[in-house]
């Protein structure tokens, strides 16, 4: 595995392609002269926003405007794991994205993104937009409800809604 790519981000966002229920999620970071897009899971986006909220709770607030994906959306890799921290020396949240690889495969690619508090706040807002744009959750089990409803496991299949 090579050293991770380091990006001092001026753009950090999440976005999707495809209809609700079949959306593909992406994370995107940009620094001067470099645009990085990676494919991820919906849970990655939600967890990242949740962790940003907990890290930012102890820091001074900063304003940020939610951003859309920049075209072209061509993923460099699929995210396997994410590490998050705060570097007090540079006053940046640091997100390290690791490529998903098989057990017997060599280590994959990784990217380290440093972003300011404003970008993190904007990411949280963007994440909320994306989560709310999906299929609504079942009030009983929390699983997504499609346009034609779903058979809830909490009712043993007796009450489709």
* Poorly predicted residue ranges: none
Instruction: Give me the CATH architecture, please.
Output: 2-Layer Sandwich
State the major sheet: 4 strands, mixed
- As for the CATH topology, it is Secreted effector protein pipB2 fold
Name the helix and strand elements from N-terminus to C-terminus, one letter apiece.
EEEEHEEEH
| The level-1 CATH class | Alpha Beta
* Rg calculated over all Cα atoms: 18 Å
Structural class comes to alpha+beta
List the strand order in the largest sheet: 1-7-6-5
Mean pLDDT: 90
* Overall geometric form: globular
How many helical elements?
Answer: 2
Number of domains: 1
Cα separation of the termini:
49 Å
Q: Strand-residue fraction? A: 25-35%
**Strand element count:** 7
Estimate percent helicity.
10-25%
Question: Can you characterise this structure?
Answer:
The chain is built from 2 helices and 7 strands. The chain has helices spanning 42-56, 117-132, and strands spanning 5-8, 11-17, 24-31, 34-40, 79-87, 92-99, 110-115. The mean pLDDT is 90.
How would you briefly describe this protein structure?
This protein is α+β, with helices and mostly antiparallel strands and 161 residues long. The protein has helices at residues 42-56, 117-132; strands spanning 5-8, 11-17, 24-31, 34-40, 79-87, 92-99, 110-115.
What labels describe this entry?
161 residues, four-stranded mixed beta sheet, three-stranded antiparallel beta sheet, alpha+beta, Secreted effector protein pipB2 fold, single chain
